[in-house]
Amino acid sequence: MCQSITISLCMIVKNEELTLDRCLTSIKDAVDEIIIVDTGSTDLTKNIAKKFTDKIFDFKWIDDFSAARNFSFSKATMDYILWLDADDYVEPGDLEKLIDLKNNFDASIDSVTMKYVLTKTSNGSPSFVSIRNRLIKRAKNFKWIGAVHEYLEVYGKIYDSDIQIMHGKVKNTSNRNIEIYEKMIESKKDFSPRDMFYYANELAEHKRYTEAIQYYNMFIDSKKGWMEDILYSLGKLADCYEALGDLDKRDEVLFKSFEYDVPRPELCCRLGYKFLQENKIKQSIFWYELATKVEKPNQGFVNIACSTWLPHIQLCICYYRLGDIEKSYMHNEEARKYDPNNPMVLQNKAFLESIL
């Protein structure tokens, strides 16, 4: 039976004066209370927060995101808890969906997942997304786990919604997470498989490829990782080997992925690119076409581009090299359906039309 519920918005913040107003303005009409936990701001963050709530709490930063998030959850008083970061926001259409869900809610649900849109195409469609448990039943007392790249441990009845949370990063905090991991290493704290995975991601992002390879392999060899993270790791491993110029190891890793699961769009695109680099056009076409046909993952990190516009723009290149201008143009038009203002797509369109 559906009913109306109340929602506490819980956030942890530090020096978020550039984005906090946007975030809270976008979500305030869907929530009944706003909890702001400040971990040491020295800018106007608290003044901005005061425009929306008087429930502002200080929490001493101890290099542990879970500790801060769990503290914020402890201050909630409503039926359900929604969490956001300061550089997140909700677009009007998704706000309406959230309000409708709130007013017609199945109270047997323990957690609601929402899509987290990390990047968008030129026309605003999601390009890279992950799925997060965003709205959780307060009475369940769910906890955050992990000092960094923390996760919310939930169980029970999960509802997968189509509501989207947008990520609109403004400031760069690129060293923060890797520094926390390295403090953990210095203090000889044990790494969980999840820590290995996310530390490897941080190392790869910082172009410390040899170290990233070590931790990706440690994570995979632990045999305790989530399948989606293992497949993601294999793709990132291939990128690391390519960056180091070890193309044999890159290829070995790419084909090894098929031992774990059927081909995924992102790995198909990597193989398509490998064969395109080698000027093996027919093989490249096979993998790029497969990327558009295989089942798209709906968990973990999902690079939507690899099943939509990206393989088609690469197929445009492949068919041009084969001298098939009509097929080249056709695939560029397919890419344009997904990403109509992509500069490369528009450049291809003008060039191919001049030939046709």
Brief summary:
The chain has helices at 20-27, 45-50, 65-74, 92-103, 176-186, 193-205, 209-221, 227-243, 247-256, 265-277, 281-291, 309-321, 325-338, 343-355, and strands at residues 2-3, 7-13, 33-38, 56-58, 80-83, 88-89, 105-106, 111-120, 126-137, 143-145, 151-153, 158-167, 301-303. With 356 residues, the chain is α/β, with parallel strands linked by helices.
Could you name the CATH topology of the largest domain?
Serine Threonine Protein Phosphatase 5, Tetratricopeptide repeat
Distance between the termini: 60 Å
Radius of gyration over all CA atoms, rounded? 23 Å
State the fourth-level CATH superfamily of the largest domain. Answer: Tetratricopeptide repeat domain
The low-confidence runs, each spanning 5 or more residues with pLDDT under 50, are none
Whole-number tally of structural domains: 2
Helix content: 40-55%
Biggest beta sheet attributes? 9 strands, mixed
Q: Determine the structural class based on helices, strands and strand pairing.
A: alpha/beta
Keywords: Transferase
InterPro entries: Glyco_trans_2-like (IPR001173), Nucleotide-diphossugar_trans (IPR029044), TPR-like_helical_dom_sf (IPR011990)
GO molecular function, one term: transferase activity
Protein name: Glycosyl transferase family 2
